[in-house]
Amino acid sequence: MNDISETNARIGEIVKSSDVVLFMKGTPLFPQCGFSSRAVAILDHLGVAYDTVDVLQDMEIRQGIKSYSDWPTIPQLYVKGEFLGGSDIMMEMFEAGELQQHMQDAQVKPAE
């Protein structure tokens, strides 16, 4: 297996490991960019349980996630294994009430 498919396999496992996964720069407590900070704020406001992956801690994941999703920027949000988008798309969906509905339809667990 080459590096790219190994990284894709790792990302696939991460994406499937939790209902909601946010690939971001930094951590929810210490986001390292404004877009990641906004993505965390949206998820916190929705009150859903989610996991995060700090791409700054793993260069393979940082590069690999962009080809995995065919999306050039981070953060990236996955719900039930499906790529939803970055922080701009999250914000648009949130403001339209679509993100809340999507979480409900996907039966995402609330944060504890």
Automatic annotation (TrEMBL):
NCBIfam families: Grx4 family monothiol glutaredoxin (TIGR00365). Belongs to the glutaredoxin family. Monothiol subfamily. The keyword Isomerase does not apply. Residues 20-83 form the Glutaredoxin domain. [2Fe-2S] cluster binds at residue 33. Transmembrane segments: none annotated. The keyword Iron applies. It comes from the Bacteria. PROSITE patterns: GLUTAREDOXIN_2. Keywords: 2Fe-2S, Iron, Iron-sulfur, Metal-binding, Redox-active center. Pfam families: Glutaredoxin (PF00462). This is Glutaredoxin. GO terms for molecular function: 2 iron, 2 sulfur cluster binding; disulfide oxidoreductase activity; metal ion binding.
